[in-house]
Amino acid sequence: MINPISLTELAGTPNPPGLREDEIHIWYAYLDEAGFDDMANCRNLLSMEESRRAARFHFPCDRRRFSLSRTLLRLLLSRYTGQSPERLQYLVGTHGKPSLPGDPLHFNVSGSRDLAAFAFSARQSLGIDVEYRRTVPDALDIAQQYFTFNEWQALNATPSPLQTQAFLQCWTRKEAFVKAVGQGLSMPLQNFEVTLMPGQPACLIHIDKNPAEASAWSLFHLEPGRDYVGALAIKGRGWQLTTRILGPYSGPADAHS
Ligand SMILES: CC(C)(COP(=O)(O)OP(=O)(O)OC[C@H]1O[C@@H](n2cnc3c(N)ncnc32)[C@H](O)[C@@H]1OP(=O)(O)O)[C@@H](O)C(=O)NCCC(=O)NCCS
Fold first, then answer.
1. Is a pLDDT exceeding 60 seen at residue 24?
2. What atom of ligand 1 comes closest to residue 112's alpha carbon?
3. CA 111 – ligand 1 centroid, Å
4. Given this model, what pLDDT does residue 229 score?
5. Model confidence pLDDT, tens digit, residues 148-169
6. Which of 67, 179, 228 to mutate to test the pocket of ligand 1 (most atoms within 8 A of CB)?
7. Which residues fall within 8 angstroms of residue 214, CB to CB, at 6 or more apart?
């Protein structure tokens, strides 16, 4: 279920949204929406390092999206932790995963085109990945290089109109998993296997050929609007997902399975 929330509400007094132990909160923001202009121009909550990184983007639109995404992350983290957004400091893991030192809150972020996706859990490390739905002409070649043999075979057997969808489902599920573990793409993507066929529920099939280890994980298929596909990975079962949209967007409901 998607409950839109306004920027004013988000930027107001910290008000912890109540993240239960069995809950995962997902927030989507469509950063090119005009409603974000004021925030892009006025609110500078970014650290020196974030501002320097923003300045390195060649295209203004990429700079704007990066700054907005980092600003929204700070505002969301501030709501969950009660800390002021501009004072939050990240600890960055060996492979680049940020966390909040001394705070039990887990979070992960993904961006593609104008979509920013933020995921939060009070109990367990998690990974989220979103991708813009686009044609991937060399999908089978990429799959041969990075996916397991079974995944490549399943993709090869998928009728061509559905192949891009299947490829992006596989890619986002794999990225969500390596982001949940925190290793990112330093983890070989052939070490574990996921489902990918359109209509098939999202599922980890094995990790290092071990199905029992895989069954300890939950993998969710995400559809953040018509133009995007995504996935969320988290250890444990029985999670409840709550999805919200930040800003003025009103689009089709999210689906997860
Ligand atoms: C993490 C990774 C999979 C992200 O893929 P992507 O599709 O390009 O980017 P996404 O938009 O989905 O995610 C980016 C966000 O993931 C988070 N992230 C970065 N590294 C991460 C990791 N190892 N695990 C989980 N999350 C990570 C950050 O919040 C990042 O946001 P930022 O760009 O604002 O800093 C990929 O960049 C990667 O593997 N990086 C690891 C590189 C590495 O090993 N570096 C070591 C030196 S730091």
1. yes
2. 11
3. 10
4. 97
5. 999 999 999 999 889 999 999 9
6. 179
7. 192, 193, 203, 204, 205, 206, 207
